[in-house]
Amino acid sequence: MSPSTLLLIVACGGSDTPPSATPSSPTDPAWPSTLGPAGTPIQQQPPSEETDQDQDGYASIASGGTDCDDQDASVNPGALEDACSGVDDDCDGVIAGGRVVLDDLDEYPCIALALADAQEGSTLVIGPGTYVERPVIETTVRLIAEEGPDTTILRGSVLATEDVSLELEGLTITGGTGTLGGAWTGYAAGGALHLVGPGSFRVTDAVLRDNQAEAGGAILVEAGDLILTGTTLEGNVQDASDVFLGGGAIYSDDRVELWDCTVRGNVADDGPDGIVAGELVVHDSVFEDHTGWVTSVGHLEMTDSTVRGVEGGLEFFSATITDSTLSDNPTFTLNPYDSLHLVRATLEDNRASDYFSVVFGSTVAQIVFEDSVFRRNTGPQCALVPDHVTLSEVGTNVYEDNVSDDGSDPICQ
Ligand SMILES: [Ca+2]
Ligand SMILES: [Ca+2]
Ligand SMILES: [Ca+2]
Fold it and tell me: Any idea which ligand is nearest the CA of 56?
């Protein structure tokens, strides 16, 4: 038997082939090559009515095909999985979604169906599972994943519409691509969370990872304060190149607070890779592994935090940085437009960019060093502080082994 004859028999479901070799659809990977000798097309035959009773183009598993429900044409390997259907739509053996309990009463297979019955102030308790959906929140609610972000995963973006506040806890959100809505007309905004507001927003013990949007890679806040606690923002991307936006992790015109958070490896197409905000308060948190500027904010208040592995720096109008360590940054500049107060801060092993000192100042900024430590920082000239800013020194500051390439004093005053 020649190979082409075998192909024809397989394609026609010949009786001398094993059931597992029976193809189910032209789009089924099991469908054999469509080219005969010398590349000539072979006439394909769809599954018979007997093997494909729901006529969705896929033969039933019982007949050797891949249709896991041959009585439902909406279920087949080519269908899109829908967490709200409660069945395995795409026949991959996994039912997306899980169990969502609304106000301790009713159960739903997905978040969106529970939201449809939610009242102002409702609580949705989300059970373990992978929820493939894009919930739209139109009334103030709490979303609580009791078993935490390791087992409770939302693949999609959340949109909280106008005047809605939101509390979200214990959830991983990944693979979101933002939503249209609010004032950001024309932009897919907030890869994981698009919060229109005005409202107040709390995100606790969550993981927002590998989301992507044109504005706010992980989170876009249009109006309202955002408080994140115990949350990781990692690998999110802002990717609109036609506007200067930044905010690979977060974009907000208002106040953002981070408590015990990690912000790691986010990317913006243009502008700061990490957080753009009107005001940013950072406690017990880490910024690391960014290949560009991490912040652009109005006022920055940082306490008990760490910045490391950054190629860029922190930009702000004014800042107070207290009891924090900024170290091992391959390219790093603290860049105040108005003022910077370092209190019990440690700056070690940072390399200023080609244009800046480690502490620079885009304008005639007022800079105060108080009881802080500066070791092994280097730069092209005036490695620590240039001469155009006003430096005040308070208490006991320690300077060791800071070196300018051109031999100039590390502090040019
Ligand atoms: Ca079928
Ligand atoms: Ca089917
Ligand atoms: Ca499935």
Answer: 1
Nearest ligand to residue 65 Cα = 1
Cα–ligand 2 centroid distance for 67 (angstroms): 5
Q: Are 236 and 266 in contact (CB under 8 A)?
A: yes
DSSP 348: E
Closest CA to 366 of 349, 342, 350: 342
Distance 51 CA to ligand 2 centre (A): 11
Question: How far, in Å, is the centroid of ligand 1 from the Cα of 99?
Answer: 28
Centre of ligand 2 to C-alpha 369, Å, is 70
- Ligand found nearest the CA of 69: 2
- Rounded distance, CA 113 to CA 6, Å? 49
How many angstroms separate the alpha carbon of residue 49 from the centre of ligand 1? 9
From CA 337, how far away is CA 318, in angstroms rounded?
7
**Could you read off the pLDDT tens digit of each residue along the chain, which spans 413 residues?**
333 333 333 333 333 333 333 333 434 333 333 344 444 444 457 788 899 999 999 999 999 999 999 999 999 999 988 889 888 999 999 888 889 999 999 999 999 999 999 999 999 999 999 999 999 999 999 999 999 999 999 999 999 999 999 999 999 999 999 999 888 888 899 999 999 999 999 999 999 999 999 999 999 999 999 999 999 999 999 998 676 678 999 999 999 999 999 999 999 987 899 999 999 999 999 999 999 999 999 999 999 999 999 999 999 999 999 999 999 999 999 999 999 999 999 999 999 988 889 999 988 899 999 999 999 999 999 999 999 999 999 999 999 999 999 999 999 99
User: 26: CA distance to ligand 2 center in Å?
Assistant: 15
The DSSP line for 287-312 is EEEESS--EEEEEEEEES-EEEEEEE
* CA separation for the pair 127, 91 (Å, rounded): 22
- Interval between CA 97 and ligand 3 midpoint (Å): 9
Distance 90 CA to ligand 2 centre (A): 9
- The rounded Å distance from CA 81 to ligand 2 centre is 13
pTM over 0.85: no
